Amino acid sequence: MNVLVIGGGGREHALVWKIAQSPLVQAIYCAPGNPGIGRLAECVKLKARDFEGLARFAREKDVGLTVVGPEDPLAAGIADHFASAGLRVFGPSASAARLEGSKSFAKAFMKRHKIPTAEYAEFDTADAAVGYVRKKGAPIVVKADGLAAGKGVTVARDVAGAEAAIREAMVDGAFGDAGSRVVIEECMEGEEASVLAFCDGRTFAPMIPSQDHKPALDGDAGPNTGGMGAYAPAPVASGAVMEDVARTVLRPVVEGMAEEGAPYRGVLYAGLMIGPAGARVVEINCRFGDPETQVVLPLMTTDIVPVMLACCEGTLAQAEIEWSPGACVSVVMASGGYPREYEKGKVICGIKEAEEEEGVIVFHAGTAERDGQLVTNGGRVLNVTATGPDIASTIEKAYRGVRRITFEGAHFRTDIGKKAIDRPLR
Ligand code: AMP
Ligand code: GLY
């Protein structure tokens, strides 16, 4: 079978890497891909929003499965477009992708189905939002309603900070249309974990839990980013927590979406806050997480292609999915200045040396090739990923890889995975 992967970041590199291991697969195409992906797949210069061009390409190349990485094309209806063209696609319909595309839809859906999440209110004017924040007090969370590439959320420690965030979204238009409405939420306490699940419209199969590191700097300081590193499995999501999440979050989401006429197929991503009262939903995403995918897929020992096909065909209940008992850690190396302004085009050295270490693989995120050299081409540049028998030695191994790689201005957190070590055994 030929497979087409849509996207070009670290998540898609990990997807292509995993799909390439399937004996069912002949050719892999990736649109647009990146230089790392280019070692495993044929990169195609088509934009993720060019549904017509992508569908034509899929037909021409006899693609039997298209896997969509990012949320934008899903929210814009790529899965519907492919399905109506008779093409098999792994990813939710636009109507199911509203769980990520509109925070107000997601919050109302969770309320309707009694899924545990933070209390919230939504506003179309800055004045009303500011009035609410003054009434509720801090800490409080301000979110742009639409898609803002992970940057539309402010956890405000005081009322002034919340007011500034409201103004940024609603008056300054920092997130464009996505910020014309804001959702204001109760601030939940606890530790975060991400639980991804394969879904076929009726049933679901959870993957092992992982943990992202969203703030830019060590100790969770600095502004939020798209994610500075991840590890799996996340001990905060113990067996009992995972059972709770399946029962109170995953099952009601899948059943609720089916009941409401938008059956959920693809990957359901539950971003959770795990506190004394159990797990509550921070956000639902309609796709694989980035960088969570880079630590979850290396631990999946089962061939992913039949699992994705089962999600498309509605036969997931029969699939067996197995996981390695080890650990995986991925450290993001970012451009100097990210998540704010940064320069591109810095020459990257040392990837080959990093990968000489057994169990280290470097997934490319924002890279490009220029005059035969590999250069930086985005905020998050590389995901230096290690697998090993336990979390402590795997963290060490990932950082040995990081230390071999250089580019001007590179910055990375030095504490990825530390929470797993600090966590007392329960
Ligand atoms: P989101 O884009 O919704 O995932 O939010 C980004 C980050 O903001 C999350 O990963 C959390 O760290 C934090 N966050 C969002 N909502 C809340 C909340 N209600 N309480 C506490 N932290 C939150
Ligand atoms: N790692 C956060 C996300 O994928 O949304």
Structural class: alpha+beta
Number of helices: 14
CATH class of the largest domain: Alpha Beta
Cα radius of gyration in angstroms? 21 Å
CATH superfamily of the largest domain: ATP-grasp fold, B domain
For this structure, the quaternary state is single chain
Query: Which ranges are low-confidence, i.e. pLDDT below 50, for 5 or more consecutive residues?
Result: none
Bin the strand percentage.
25-35%
For the termini, the CA-CA separation is 45 Å
Largest sheet: 5 strands, parallel
For this entry, give a set of tags.
14 helices; alpha+beta; binds adenosine monophosphate; five-stranded parallel beta sheet; 426 residues; Rossmann fold; binds glycine; Dna Ligase, domain 1; D-amino Acid Aminotransferase, Chain A, domain 1
